[in-house]
Design brief:
The protein has 506 residues and is mostly helical. It has two domains: 3-159; 171-503, Neurolysin, domain 3. It is built from 21 helices and three strands. It has helices spanning 3-35, 42-61, 63-77, 84-101, 104-126, 130-151, 157-162, 171-194, 210-224, 260-279, 295-309, 313-326, 328-331, 336-343, 360-376, 384-396, 422-442, 445-450, 455-464, 474-482, 489-503; strands spanning 233-235, 241-245, 248-253. A three-stranded mixed sheet has the order 1-3-2. Helix 8 (171-194) crosses helix 15, helix 9 runs parallel beside helix 10 and helix 11 (295-309) packs across helix 17 (422-442). The longest helix is centred in the first third of the chain and has 33 residues, at 3-35. The mean pLDDT is 95. Bound molecules: zinc ion (ZN). Residues 269, 273, 299, 302 line the site of zinc ion. Zinc ion binds next to helix 10 and helix 11.
């Protein structure tokens, strides 16, 4: 790199870091909005956030920033493609190129439709009246098609939307993996149902005082490696994990005094996201090397700690006695096997966010297939509720009695989020593949969990995944870490290994 180019690179990094600083201020306000903001302060907070969003956007589309990136890309990417510098230039340029392809009028129309769409959806869901939401969904689909055209795509318009969350991933690849998964998962779920076995769910629905749940959850999050010196745990309606700065990643949960799972597994999930964020290289904060590879990879980390660790027998061999000390009245008489079966109850249900580890993926598959069909024009908004119900019958053997518990249950489409759902299933798939590889390399993980040792797994994840930031795409990362492309097989193996013995299947 010549002096001139080195100076230009410095300018680009300074610009990107300042943009990230404004975005982090927006995150502080957003976190506050979801935790402690007084109800009456909402309108002004929305103005503050909109203002900062505008500032961030202006900085991304800034002409000089674009010129610097173009010059650096022409000079540097061709000659040193594998360096940190090249990764930063390539990722920033890619992100900027996407932003400038969208005409201002389309961005505004998308934002307006999302705001109005969410209001209409809330009302439609409350009144179980799909017709109230239908025109907004129609508008959203039309705009999303325009967005895909503006962004450009090789194969399928959905590629352009998916790219927002899974950079460089292809619809055809996701479709191939998910339909392979579906072919094995639908019969497994049917066999579980036909087994006639059911755990004693009553165990989890006893009394669990909220304050005690908070302490217990915090202790578990700490044990798996979430760092409370650089984070905290608060209460919200919808649990989330938010990064507010290089050493400030916060998680939230919600509590039900009469249901153990709600808070505990949310804490494990969000702590999994938090452990990833806390392990990104903070020196690069504001640059792509300190950003998660993709939403799917992010979700793989939360699912791994929630399901592969937190719902394992080995974990509870260590933690059930601890839990019994925290909740002696409710768990004192519960055996490990009864508890383990209850937290792994599989049951087809109507609501995605309440679904278990096995059926969850079918909820996602249904949404992915319907999004594709809507983008292709194969399913119109008039046919959507019946298409939804048909798929629930086909894959889960149940029919939503009302649209409020069917097609109207999720907020995603009302807010213009199309292409997001598959990242949840990708998260489960990546988690399974990474976890199988960790087991190959680290040996007896169960033995470690039984002793309450989680650091070997956490450090392995940091070494293999976290420290790379956005150096690799998700597809490259999974190849790099496991030596093979994404496959549904590790997830199915995990589900077979767990559920066949629990439900007495062969
Ligand atoms: Zn998550």
């Amino acid at each position: 790199m010549t002096n001139n180019m080195a100076q230009l690179y410095q300018q680009v990094c300074d610009h990107a870091r300042q943009t990230a600083m404004i975005a982090s201020i927006e995150s502080v306000l957003g976190w506050d909005d979801h935790t402690y903001l007084p109800a009456a302060a909402g309108d002004y907070r929305a103005e503050q956030i909109t203002f900062l969003t505008g500032q961030v956007h202006q900085r991304w589309v800034d002409k000089a920033f674009g010129d610097w990136l173009d010059t650096l890309a022409a000079d540097h990417l061709a000659t040193h493609p594998a360096t940190d510098t090249a990764v930063v230039i390539h990722r920033l340029k890619r992100q900027r190129d996407r932003r400038i392809k969208l005409p201002q009028s389309l961005v505004e129309e998308l934002t307006r439709t999302a705001v109005l769409g969410q209001l209409a959806w809330q009302e439609a869901r409350a009144q179980n009246d799909y017709a109230k939401f239908r025109p907004y969904l129609q508008k959203t689909i039309t705009l999303k098609k325009q967005q895909a055209e503006a962004l450009g795509f090789n194969d399928h318009p959905y590629d352009a939307l998916l790219d927002e969350f899974e950079p460089e991933e292809q619809t055809a690849n996701v479709g191939r993996v998910l339909s392979g998964l579906r072919e094995q998962l639908v019969p497994l779920v049917a066999a579980i149902l036909n087994s006639g076995r059911q755990p004693r769910m009553e165990i989890l629905k006893r009394n669990f005082p909220v304050e005690v749940q908070k302490t217990f959850g915090q202790r578990a999050a700490e044990a798996i490696g979430y760092d409370f010196k650089r984070g905290r745990l608060d209460v919200t309606v919808h649990p989330f994990c938010a990064t507010l700065g290089p050493h400030d990643c916060r998680i939230t949960a919600r509590y039900d005094e009469n249901f153990f799972n709600m808070a505990f597994f949310a804490v494990m999930h969000e702590a999994g996201h938090g452990i990833y964020e806390q392990a990104l290289p903070a020196d690069y904060y504001g640059l792509p090397l300190c950003e998660a590879a993709s939403m799917g990879i992010h979700e793989s980390q939360s699912r791994m700690w929630e399901n592969f660790v937190g719902r394992s027998r080995a974990f509870w061999r260590h933690y059930l006695p601890v839990a019994q000390a925290f909740f002696p009245q409710s768990l004192g008489d519960v055996s490990l096997e009864d508890f383990y079966f209850a937290i792994n109850d599989v049951r087809p249900s109507l609501i995605r966010v309440e679904a278990d580890e096995a059926t969850y993926n079918l909820h996602i598959l249904i949404r992915f297939e319907l999004e594709l069909a809507m983008m292709q024009g194969d399913v119109g908004v008039d046919d959507l509720p019946s298409a939804w119900n048909d798929k629930y019958r086909q894959y889960l053997g149940i029919t939503p009695p009302r649209d409020a518990e069917g097609v109207l249950q999720d907020m995603h489409w009302s807010g213009g989020l199309i292409g997001y759902f598959p990242t949840y299933a990708l998260g489960n798939l990546y988690a399974a593949q990474f976890f199988a590889q960790a087991r190959n390399e680290l040996g007896n993980l169960d033995g470690m969990f039984e002793r309450g040792e989680f650091e070997p797994l956490r450090l392995w994840l940091r070494e293999k995944i976290h420290r790379h930031g956005k150096r690799f795409t998700a597809a490259e990362l999974v190849e790099h870490v496991t030596g093979r492309p994404l496959s549904y097989e590790p997830l199915m193996m995990h589900l077979y290994d767990k559920f066949r013995p629990l439900y007495g299947l062969d």
